[in-house]
Design goal:
Number of helices: 9
Distance between the termini: 15 Å
Largest sheet: none
Order of helices and strands: HHHHHHHHH
Structural class: mainly alpha
Strand content: under 5%
Oligomer: single chain
């Protein structure tokens, strides 16, 4: 994948967020302040607009730039976390001219690590980490097994979806959702859902590259 591919990935994420905006609002209203759909829509609209204008040829550098744009467009908690993930993830692969399985694994590992550091959270706390971390682990396994990018992202997508299902059974430990404690068990977390959308955006584009 090159920079043009990244632009398409961002467009895919934007489309998913637009389609699921109401879902995010409903999920966030149950355990948050109900603005997640609006902020994520704003974030990825801005990122998509920026990617169309950009003539950056290095994918990692484009990802850093898009993270900066998301931070400015959506200065909420989730916007800041997603922006940090894109910036730090992009920084970790900024010398690569192409993104293969190795680079995508590195991107997602640093995406997760930076969100954990910024948000002072960890896997198991019912957050976005619970859907992007399984994807990162699956991608790294894909590198170790010499999987093609399509095979690796397919495994990452499945891991992310499973992560969302697993996180729904967890008790929220972080952010506004943590106020709900035991009542949060069984409820789907908005942030974890956003994590699956990001992975899905990569999956849909890579899947489309075959055709």
């Amino acid at each position: 994948m090159d920079s043009e591919d990244i632009k398409s990935v961002i467009l895919q994420i934007k489309k998913i967020v637009d389609l699921q905006k109401e879902t995010l609002t409903v999920l966030d209203s149950a355990m948050g302040d109900g603005d997640l759909g609006i902020t994520m829509s704003r974030a990825f609209h801005a990122a998509s607009e920026e990617s169309v204008k950009s003539d950056e040829k290095i994918p990692g550098k484009l990802l850093i730039r898009l993270g900066m744009v998301i931070a400015k467009a959506a200065p909420s908690t989730m916007g800041t976390l997603v922006a940090t993930g894109f910036m730090k993830g992009g920084k970790s692969i900024e010398i690569a001219e192409q993104i293969g399985t190795q680079e995508l694994a590195t991107f997602f590992e640093n995406f997760v690590r930076s969100i954990m550091e910024r948000g002072k959270s960890a896997p198991g706390n019912k957050t976005i980490i619970d859907t992007v971390n399984p994807a990162a682990i699956a991608l790294r396994a894909g590198v170790n097994e010499n999987l093609l990018l399509m095979e690796a992202i397919t495994a990452a997508r499945a891991a992310s979806i499973q992560g969302l299902e697993d996180s729904t059974k967890m008790k929220a430990q972080y952010g506004r959702a943590a106020y709900y404690q035991d009542d949060s068990i069984g409820k789907q977390d908005g942030g974890a859902t956003v994590g699956t959308f990001i992975v899905e955006g990569f999956y849909l584009h890579i899947e489309g590259m075959k055709h």
